[in-house]
Task: structure prediction
Amino acid sequence: MDIHVFHRRRPPVTTPCTMENGGCSHLCLRSPNPSGFSCTCPTGINLMPDGKICSPGMNSFLIFARRIDIRMVSLDIPYFADVVVPINITMKNTIAIGVDPQEGKVYWSDSTLHRISRANLDGSQHEDIITTGLQTTDGLAVDATGRKVYWTDTGTNRIEVGNLDGSMRKVLVWQNLDSPRAIVLYHEMGYMYWTDWGENAKLERSGMDGSDRTVLINNNLGWPNGLTVDKASSQLLWADAHTERIEVADLNGANRHTLVSPVQHPYGLTLLDSYIYWTDWQTRSIHRADKGTGNNVILVRSNLPGLMDIQAVDRAQPLGFNKCGSRNGGCSHLCLPRPSGFSCACPTGIQLKGDGKTCDPSPETYLLFSSRGSIRRISLDTSDHTDVHVPVPELNNVISLDYDSVDGKVYYTDVFLDVIRRADLNGSNMETVIGQGLKTTDGLAVDWVARNLYWTDTGRNTIEASRLDGSCRKVLVNNSLDEPRAIAVFPRKGYLFWTDWGHIAKIERANLDGSERKVLINTDLGWPNGLTLDYDTRRIYWVDAHLDRIESADLNGKLRQVLVSHVSHPFALTQQDRWIYWTDWQTKSIQRVDKYSGRNKETVLANVEGLMDIIVVSPQRQTGTNACGVNNGGCTHLCFARASDFVCACPDEPDSRPCSLVPGLVPPAPRVTSISERNPVLTNTLPTTLRSSTTRTRTSLEEMGGRCSEKDAQLGLCAHSNEAVPAAPGEGLHASYVIGGLLSILLILVVIAALMLYRHKKSKLTDPGMGNLTYSNPSYRTSTQEVKIEAIPKPAMYNQLCYKKEGGPDHNYTKEKIKIVEGICLLSGDDAEWDDLKQLRSSRGGLLRDHVCMKTDTVSIQASSGSLDDTETEQLLQEEQSECSSVHTAATPERRGSLPDTGWKHKRKLSSESQV
Result:
């Protein structure tokens, strides 16, 4: 290849460029001219008249996106050469581009990273300004005069605006958009224009505040891509990749004619001075033509694959007059131009006050919902039901959530991290409340009065409570739970409600301390997922994802009625005013109906992947009080309101503070004792209503010789368990009454246990095949953002699917372990998967191609759980083969056997609404 000669005795030669770079600001090059050198500048930049200093940058240039980078072509020099803007980031799919000539910044969208970013034109000071709520941002325009950025999103079908730093974001247009693409601004006129290449392609115009929307052209359009405005001639120009034309019309859509034809596949279009420039996907080039005639088409740059948007910039052009003036038009938040002047506007979801200039600090009533990787908000104060992301960090697999109106914090569960966390609605102050001992936390509820937190854990089959900061954790219910899911509290009544979609689905109620547990509904239920309370009418509402309906009943489970039938796959619901709102996994939407009639069904928000829980935040929801609302009821740790009184309780794991079960009692710290002395020394400091101000110190039970005085029993000093006991109304109970009551409770528990054991044995005497239950409820998987359904064999005589985060055992059964369920569709958004399932089932419940009876299912479950070896499995299968030959089992078999006849058979899904 190349070769050079080196000699160590070769003397150095002094050149004019040796001293101070020849006085050049950039490059000093040897030259045969009289001076022996010349100064020159980087590609695309002009040399100043002094012949030594280069211009600060390009004054007139093209800037374009090429998916993986951004490049510039200077128009200051007589040749075309592109240079890469040295932005030190990895670009994935850069689409739209815009420039702020005042600050010398370039703005761009990346549809793969789902963000809008900006940087200086020299590549420095990169920052992401919009990072949430974006899908496919095809168009972007910078209002350098009004200091705003506008963009279109084909994924969300919205046009939005925000400040140049991304703050005060607002949705301007959200209705009747199909696939909005290019957007351009005419600040002086107060108009914005955009193309829509959807099924009914069109060019539209509105005020820059979204007002006065008008369709300009909607005929003879194919794929209108690029768009630009010629302010000098008051014309609108666009490029159509389907008709292969660049056309022009007046700003009102009149006098339309073709400017350039044919063009191969134009995408971006821009204009500067007397020329139009466009990018072409097919030729992989940038082209130029006269803007008036379309003649003199030349090639600017070629061999540029991945060409997208393009903008022409002249930094010497004046910005024009800002309609909002120097004081933002007197607006507290956004000032947006319009044809008749300007208007004040608020960020999405926030109302403008009566003065027309000031915005409320935040929405008053809104929906708060989770979608696995995000928490979002939809204001009910405004007419546009558009979602706003709550910028909470580190969200992986968010399932359940609730809100505390006192502190303004959102609480949520993450089943990937197995934590319960809380944060402010602006995303700050995120902290872990419960970080250990969780498996699959499906339901979450905040007791805003007593400042307690409740949750269900499907993995551990428990219902627990703690203080809102996660302290004083206590298990309230840990028996006869199968798949507890949703949970709700009614502090004014002292009630706790929850759903259980297990083997015997049911809805239950208890006091807030877990006592007086009662089954409200256990018939005609499938998968009772979501649960909510109407505190005004005092009714419970729930969604059933198997029976495809929304139902309600009173607080005692009576007066039950079906509100809505034929819903797809509802998961969670909430109530506000006269509306019931719910999330649906299959339709990927939030919907609502009238809570009285079940009519007026509306879609609030569509096309949302991974919808989970939903709640309403409103001043009307978290109202009322109870005895625990003042000073925690006098309790040292936990205070639980009940239907007629309240109780103090201690956490399951003692903390550093002595715990008292008596309101008002503040025991001192324990004395140093041996490990065997589990009970601390208590100092009886009671209110004057209970005893005199004189305090009396007691030693441990060992020091008292095991004696317990009558007054000690009254004050609760003889109780050393963590169980909650009722608060004394004033006078203490006699010790014998306490002992007698405890014995009575113990006797009742023994009787209940014996009755449950008897029923359990009796159920085993029935036909095990008929008592078997095999059905599927979608499960959460931590490895994906899609809602999927996977089989998780259980050791019991039934098989059901839940969304526990564990992947479960290997489901590649041997030939002896027959398949239990066929046609399980994945909720991944592929309609073909649902269609495949529909074809497997008839219109009245359906039959599978391969038929398996319930007894055979039972054999398979026993085999998969390890209770039968392969020989036993084969033998049982052969015994049942003839009996099962005529039995057809659907993908989601109906309940049978010992369960009451609830009409389950006759209410299975139609094929058009199959759900697994």
About this structure: The chain has four domains: 60-314, 366-617, 631-672+679-691+709-727, 773-913.
